[in-house]
Amino acid sequence: MDPISEQDGSQDWATVPIATLIEHILARYHRVHRQQLAELIPLARRVESVHAEHPACPLGLAEHLDTMAHELESHMQKEERILFPLLEQGLPAAGLPPVMVMRQEHELHLKALERLMELARQLEVPEGACKSWQNLLIGLGALRSDLLAHMKLENEVLFV
Fold first, then answer.
1. What pLDDT was estimated at residue 95?
2. Is residue 156 a contact partner of residue 96, using CB atoms and an 8 Å limit?
3. Which of 2, 48, 91, 105 is most exposed by smallest CB count within 10 Å?
């Protein structure tokens, strides 16, 4: 199933007013990403600390998540402070310089997700993984799915 449909119900986001779509993005994605990363970073640090000797330990994951959190926060702030107000004023997204920047940053977020998957060994639960490690992998899967759906919604609906 398509991630947008799966996570956003049957709503056709291309037919709603731009302000409604932006409200949805803020509530469903921006707020959720901030919460996810705030929970995942300390959890990754704990797993790395406790299981550092385990051959499947995702060493470097917490640092990578921290970098992702800073980059994503910067990206979301640009949307919230610059791009979204322009779009709400009725300016067309196509060709707007901030939209081009956001699309470029989405490509960087995709690369960061690829690295996340490498560090987390494709989210496969290793033998001997404790509940915290299992929860970390579940949370990483949710973050990945949400971020992909978020970017797709913006790229294919908001930015056109």
1. 85
2. no
3. 2
Which residues are CB-contacts of 73 (< 8 A; sequence separation ≥ 6)? 34
CA distance linking residue 43 with residue 29, whole number of Å: 21
Contacts of 130-137 with C-beta under 8 Å, sequence gap 24+, read 130/47, 130/50, 130/51, 132/43, 132/46, 132/47, 132/50, 133/47, 133/51, 135/43, 136/40, 136/43, 136/44, 136/47, 136/58
pLDDT surpasses 60 at 29: yes
Q: In degrees rounded to 5, what are phi and psi of residue 32?
A: -65, -45
In tens, the pLDDT along 100-127 reads 999 999 999 999 999 999 999 999 999 9
